[in-house]
Design goal:
three-stranded mixed sheet; mainly alpha; 8 helices
């Protein structure tokens, strides 16, 4: 394009735009490259930088906040880490514990992306189901049954039943605060 415009002489860019429909800005760039060599556009240097460029400590601060609230997969079938902290809560903790201001921190969505990038998943951790029969538990219960049967057979053994879950008020709180007279 630049060579054609140059061959047209003075006003060639205007003629090329009018007759051929070429963009004058593109023609101007082509003429510059023809005279001075190729231009490097530096597309990689354009646009918004990741938040880590502005706040290099952010990822380690997020880890420091989330790590105490983290659990491994309870079934131990994967390497996933689960946390009870949501992205907005992590953001609040960053401001409270690490001294970040509201303006300098990224949005909740960016924090959620960084949590996922670090391998954390927001999930209420389900408790694993216990095994149905454990050999040690069965041995304990069989021993308890044997001692109970021996106590039932002995006429000199007194058996007491205690309800350990019942609460009993004592002292001034017993019987509505009334003392027996």
């Amino acid at each position: 394009m630049a060579q054609v415009v140059q061959s047209l002489g003075r006003g060639g860019a205007v003629k090329a735009e009018r007759e051929l429909g070429w963009n004058r800005g593109t023609v101007r760039k082509g003429l510059f490259e023809l005279n001075h060599g190729p231009i490097e556009d530096a597309f990689a240097q354009r646009g918004r930088k990741p938040v880590e460029a502005k706040l290099p400590q952010l990822l380690s601060d997020i880890q420091a906040i989330v790590e105490p609230q983290t659990q491994a997969d309870p079934t131990l079938t994967s390497q996933r880490l689960y946390t009870r902290l949501s992205a907005p809560e992590v953001r609040r903790q960053l401001m409270a514990q690490k001294g970040y201001s509201d303006a300098e921190l990224p949005s909740d969505e960016v924090i959620r992306q960084r949590l996922n990038q670090l391998g954390y998943r927001l999930k209420r951790v389900a408790k694993t189901k216990p095994q149905k029969v454990i050999a040690e538990t069965e041995a304990i219960f069989s021993e308890v049954n044997r001692v109970n049967q021996a106590a039932d057979a002995d006429a000199h053994t007194l058996r007491l039943s205690i309800d350990a879950k019942a609460t009993v008020k004592v002292g001034d709180y017993d019987r509505g605060g009334k003392k027996s007279g």
